[in-house]
Amino acid sequence: MLRSSIRNIALITVLASMAPGVVQAQALLYGGGGALFPVSEFDLTADPGFVAVTGIMFPVGGGALSVGAEGLYGKPSGSGNGPSKNINGLMAYAETTFGEEGGPQPFLFGGVGMLRLSSSETSKTSFGYQAGGGLNVAIGGIMSVWAEGRYVSASPAAPLTPTFVSLMVGASISLGR
Questions:
Q1: Using one digit for the tens of pLDDT, what is the confidence trace for 101-138?
Q2: Dihedral pair phi/psi, residue 144, rounded to 5°
Q3: Which of 163, 160, 72, 153 shows the shortest CA–CA distance to 121?
Q4: Phi, psi at residue 11, to the nearest 5°?
Q5: Bridge partner list, 37
Q6: Domain architecture of the chain: domains with CATH
């Protein structure tokens, strides 16, 4: 298990570090948060809570494709007398946008990484994936705001697989413009 975790973390690090080599534009820093809604068998042991993300994105080429890496923290409410749970993640992802730059731009993204579900009783790390979409709106030369929905899940082989849907809002700032 440890060897698998180390291999997966190394893969994510390599993918994220490759991004600057293909970048032809500035990086974007972003952060946001919102509601977390547990689904699947995870729903039996957790109630809705909150989730927050922060990351960096690198536009690739002159097109609408970007790659990036992000950290994720979620805290579903404990169900009944059960232990409180935390979800931590590190994800690499790719995103594509539609529409004209400077105006509202819908986007879709997907990514892979590591998710860790921990409580006072146990802690499990497993491979995870995410997918989602939203709308990005420029509010100035270097800033934008966004709203999105995403689906996040860990490997089905993990005990108490943390699987959730989130609705988030956030902001991004462009570096180097």
A1: 778 899 999 999 998 888 777 778 888 899 999 999 98
A2: -150, 160
A3: 160
A4: -60, -45
A5: 165
A6: 2-174 (2.40.160.20)
**Would you state the structure tokens that stand for residue 47, as one six-digit string?**
């109630």
pLDDT digit string, tens, across residues 72-108: 998 887 655 556 678 899 999 999 999 887 788 999 9
Per residue in 66-102, is it b (16+ CB within 10 Å) or e — as a string? bbbbbebebebebeeeeeebbbbbbbbbbbebeeeee
Closest by CA to 158, choosing from 117, 111, 119, is 117
Q: Which two tokens stand for residue 17?
A: 């570090």
